[in-house]
Amino acid sequence: MSQYDFDLITIGGGSGGVRASRFAANLGAKVAVVEGAHMGGTCVNVGCIPKKLMSVAAHYHEDFEDAAGFGWHLKDKPTFDWPTLIARKDAEIARLNRIYENVLTTAGVTILRGWARLVDAHTVEVDGKHYSSRTILLATGGQPVRPDLPGAELAITSDEFFPLGAQPARALVYGGGYIAVEMASIFNGLGTATSLVYRGERLVKDFDADLGLHLAQEMAKKGVQIALHTVIEKIEKAATGLRVHLSDGRVEETDCVLLATGRKPRVDGLGLEALGITQKANGAVVVNEALCSSLPSVYAIGDLIDRMALTPVATSEGMVVAEALFGKPGRSTRYDLVPTAVFSHPNVASVGLSEARARAQARSQGGAVRIFRSTFTPLRHTLSGRAEKTLMKLVVDPTTDRVLGVHMVGPDAGEIVQGFAVALVCGATKAQFDATIGIHPTLAEEFVTLRTEYVAPA
Question: Which of 162, 161, 206, 239 lies closest to 354, judged by CA?
């Protein structure tokens, strides 16, 4: 008989924790998952899923407008009801919560409801009760950072955005990363007068520079008021909402301020410091290649380790841990070619190296890069009359001819780039892209018909 209650206790019922726990149980381990909130974590409850649903909803107003160019005429002006969307979204999230719980129970995993704290290397306390385990997996995810500025308590974060009971007539989004541009696009698309304030010189700065510049232009066309190189100095209550003082001297009145200035690992209350578990300055747990912390019995995955805050990465890491502990070690997560998408309007998607990173890498090796780029009007907008432009870009190593990066801003960018991610993982060359016959007429075919090397204007 084991000296422990469990072989694995996972703290956190998000996508990564659930995948690791279910996989470990299928490999014969006795597993428990501790969760104090809804199953599914950030992604299911206040992230990927509700965001995508609301993004889809926010696209419809343009679809109604575009339909006129194709001969469709609506007798009455379409109207939107925010409470209906929120209720429908909440029902779907509740369904997914149940699915996550059923997946665990079907696999034989014990679910412990409550908040966890590490007592020692093999003991977890959950609401006053102690449970022992041979190994412990930390999968508690991340949480929004609320910046230190006067009046910040008057604003909301993405966590409070999704359950909003009423639609604000005016909204100001503070930030320039993927959450900021997604929230601004949703607000704007659903009819809220929206502005976005960001301290940086371009949006989504972690992506290829051309993507952020192009995205800002397209969001502005859709009505989002964007102020770059600008910060909020303070927020205060006004007679009819909130008054926001900006560093450029403007004072903007709004009904809602949404802070999207970053996220941090969720470590408060876990008791990591008392056990001497090594952490980064932002609280992230430091792990080795096997995802083990400085305490040999404690592992960590997902947003908590601050490598790549993406759900599929967390689930991959969860499987790595489960396999290493209870199966056949050797599985690993590859971080260099992870495709990702931003569900802004229009969408952004990317896989591989940005132009800047590719050039820096080439310079260190005495080489260069080739750029292939196209900006064009999608076919549907030749009849809709909308001024939206799509951007597609390839980064190529001239020595090996390998495609190093695929980047896009435009409709369904995530759906398109996912397929090209397979090609990059397989080491595809530009010649192989060129030899591939495109599906006509599609946006995706542009990636296999780019022939002229792009030279930036002097």
Answer: 206
Where residue 458 falls among pLDDT bands split at 50, 70, 90? low
- Residue 215: which CATH number? 3.50.50.60
Q: How many domains does the chain have?
A: 3
Catalytic pick from 59, 73, 130, 440? 440
Statement to judge: residues 11 and 58 lie in one domain? yes
pTM over 0.90, yes/no:
yes
Q: Has residue 280 been placed in a domain?
A: yes
Domain hosting residue 256, numbered range? 152-261
pLDDT tens digits along 372-416: 999 999 999 999 999 999 999 999 999 999 999 999 999 999 999
Quick check: is 440 catalytic? Answer: yes
| Contact by Cβ (8 Å): 334, 34 | no
pLDDT (tens digit per residue) in 33-57: 999 999 999 999 999 999 999 999 9
Q: Pairing relation of β-strands 110-113 and 31-35?
A: parallel
